[in-house]
UniProtKB/TrEMBL annotation:
Belongs to the TrpB family. It is an enzyme of class 4 (lyase). Keywords: Amino-acid biosynthesis, Aromatic amino acid biosynthesis, Lyase, Pyridoxal phosphate, Tryptophan biosynthesis. This is Tryptophan synthase beta chain. It comes from the Bacteria. The lineage of its organism: Bacteria, Pseudomonadati, Bacteroidota, Bacteroidia, Bacteroidales. Pfam families: PALP.
Length: 401
């Protein structure tokens, strides 16, 4: 059986590892040594699951989408991560990492954010645990995700607009790592996705695996079997996708479909479709598929979605895509906007634009009527209402206006 999980060095096949500056070596090595004994301890599990239940509001519902099932000729279930406290799946991970940071004696938390959902989730748990919080966010994203910026500030976090590069998620990650290099002793970096040096890709995937853990028993309760025919999720760095598929990677009866951000089309220079367009490189401490030029210079990722415009993708997903375990679709901006309006009008659920990419993938697949399809709605669309309104002409072509 193929192994799709990290080995002892943090590699997923040829991808992964830990490529860090010398000043961070001890920090990262100590975390590698400590994280599994801590998160597998009975004490950690009890505190973590209590907070997921009573604070986050888990389990998140598995909702049968009747009208969209009829439209696409399948049995479509939506995993409602948008109903979590803070409005996305990100809180599953930040709860776990803040508990880990406390066990390690850290007193200061930093994070990167794109759409602001991870930043809000980090600021939330820092307020909960009375920890100092600083969030790095590209200046472009600060402008287009203003509401989430104000939420972070209201929660007590200091938000640092990053004005290098194209001022989006990748630049925020780079700035957070620079800060970490300056404060290695007291600082814990809560990484928001399945990226970064080992052990972060594995750690984040484990924290998010509660999604597929719940899907298994929820399906068993609703349809009498614990696996779907299809799993669908959007993918940028890869955290909600990793959580959605974690307990199904070796379930051969389940097809895995991931939707990445095509922007204006993956063949163009205005795209974030890294699995389609990327080549092997090292970014933010990990070997992964990266959008880069022939000289290894990182190319700007372009998409309407602030949460999917990362020019790399987590090593777990790189390995699975290379080995053919996942089918990856490139979803263009106009298709994502249409998908968001479709879910809104047909099921009364306004999804985050990130999640709308997964919805749009449905139109590119052919199902049998009895196929069970589980699609993760990774976040709610409150933060994206202005973007939806500015681009509603794209949805008008489909009869929504």
């Amino acid at each position: 059986m193929e192994n799709y999980f990290a080995d002892e060095r943090g590699f997923y096949g040829e991808f992964g590892g830990a490529y860090v500056p010398e000043i961070l070596y001890k920090c990262v090595h100590d975390l590698q040594e400590a994280y599994l004994p801590i998160i597998e301890s009975a004490e950690f599990k009890a505190e973590y699951h209590a907070l997921l239940k009573d604070y986050v509001g888990r389990p998140s519902p598995l909702y049968f989408a009747k009208r969209m099932s009829e439209k696409y000729g399948c049995q479509l279930y939506l995993k409602r991560e948008d109903l979590n406290h803070t409005g996305a799946h990100k809180i599953n991970n930040t709860i776990g990492q803040i508990l880990l940071a406390k066990k390690l004696g850290k007193t200061r938390i930093i994070a990167e954010t794109g759409a602001g959902q991870h930043g809000v989730a980090t600021a939330t748990v820092c307020a909960l645990m009375n920890m100092k919080c600083e969030v790095f966010m590209g200046a472009t994203d600060v402008e287009r995700q203003h509401t989430n910026v104000e939420r972070m500030k209201m929660l007590g976090a200091e938000v640092h607009p990053v004005r290098t590069g194209n001022m989006t998620l990748s630049d925020a990650c780079s700035e957070a790592i620079r800060d970490w290099c300056c404060h290695p002793a007291d600082t814990f970096y809560i990484v928001g996705s399945t990226m970064g040096p080992h052990p972060y890709p594995d750690l984040v995937a484990r924290m998010q695996s509660v999604i597929s853990e719940e899907i298994k028993w929820q399906l068993e309760a609703q349809i009498g079997r614990d696996y779907p025919d299809y799993l669908i999720a959007c993918i940028g760095g890869g955290s909600n996708a990793a959580g959605t598929i974690y307990h199904y990677v070796n379930e051969e009866r389940t097809k895995i479909v991931l939707a990445e951000a095509g922007g204006h089309g993956w063949q163009t220079d205005h795209t974030a479709a890294t699995i389609h367009k990327g080549t092997t490189g090292i970014l933010h401490g990990s070997k992964m598929l990266v959008m880069q030029d022939e000289n290894g210079q990182i190319q700007e990722a372009f998409t309407i979605s602030a949460g999917l415009d990362y020019p790399g993708v987590g090593p777990m997903h790189c390995n699975m895509a290379k080995k053919g375990r996942t089918q990856v679709l490139s979803i263009n901006d106009d298709e994502a906007i249409r998908g968001g309006y479709e879910l809104t009008r047909m099921e009364g659920i306004i999804p985050a634009i990130e999640s709308a990419h997964a919805i749009a993938a449905l139109s590119k697949l052919t199902f049998k009527k009895d196929d069970v399809v589980v699609l993760t709605v990774s976040g709610r669309g409150d933060k994206d209402v202005e973007t939806y309104l500015k681009n509603k002409a794209m949805a008008g072509e489909y009869g929504y206006f």
